[in-house]
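Worked example 2:
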Amino acid sequence: MQLRYNFRVYPEPIQRAALARAFGCARVVFNDGLRARQEAHEAELPYIKDNDLQKQVITAAKRTGERAWLGEVSSVVLVQSLRDLHTAYRNFFASVTGKRKGRKVAPPRFKSKRDSKQSIRLTANGFSLRDNGKLYVAKVGELRVRWSCTLPSVSASVTVTKDAANRYWASFVVDTGPQFLPGLDTETGIDLGLSAFAVLSDGTKISAPRFLRRAEKKLKRLQKDLSRKAKGSKNRAKARIKVARQHAAVASRRRDWHHKESTKIIRGSQAVYVEDLAVSGLARTSLAKSVHDAGWSAFVSMLEYKAAKHGRYFGRIGRFEPTSQVCSACGIKDGPKTLSVREWTCQECGTVHDRDINAARNIRAAGQADRPNACGAPVRRASAPAQRREAGSHQKGQTAQAGIPAL
């Protein structure tokens, strides 16, 4: 499997200027290629092939006085930027034709120098790892990297990124094998929520840390300072960076907490089952801030890749499963309940249920039922359609032909 490793990079002032040139040149090449294809489409000309586009916006452009400064950066950066454009077009065409499943992909858009993130990607020809622990980038120099861990294998590419808080990162994608953990007999269902971030089927409740809510007071003060600065001034730029750094700190705390909790769950369970929540829909309601603050999608993604990495099973159940309506003890469906009902008693068996714990147990049961058996088929029995003669009423002609006496 492939994993991405991010490390903080600390370039010198001269190196920052070189990276700024690389970011700008990569952005210009991307926009020039996108503009050339859009103009060809408007003129009803054939789609420009990848090699022809590279010759037009890189090779030929360097010989002109208008784009001669493209030669100041590594050609690997420019070629990889154009490959990003090719990938964006292929994803768009695959989405339009139906070959790509999931949400529709929009066509490529122009990049701006005011985007919150600037990045370049280099292949093995444009970077190398030095023996002194520094990262060498062509026409930039040796960058000081804070290595939090050792790369498990050699990376074929690196992406250097500058975020909105003026922090620089080096991202490596490496191929790594599974790291199997000792087998366990426990399986866990997880019910995600807002009052408690996650409730496990064994009764454990993980409280929601609410990182954004805790930082709102300081963010409010920084946003107020930013609004008072004149647009285009240096003080406004400094105030914007302070706000961005505070948001980055909140995101970093949340990501670190997600990693710790997801690792703890994966290490303690052989199989993990979660509900397929419609996060994008919930993010458009009055609970939008709390939903974004929880970060369910990032947490579930961590569970999924860590399960694959450590030899665990990860399963999702349908979002329309009535996990809060079914008694986990006897299986009787007791009907829908409002969110204010946190405890309820089953009318059939008399079991008193905590709403979230009962939902987590039902998620585990539904995940176990949908889990493929040794032959690859689901364990849950498929619903059998009713016989034709039993489904609904029949006309006189049909009942006579079927040998069924008319009523």
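Residues 234-267 form the longest helix (34 residues). Confidence is low (pLDDT under 50) at residues 381-407.
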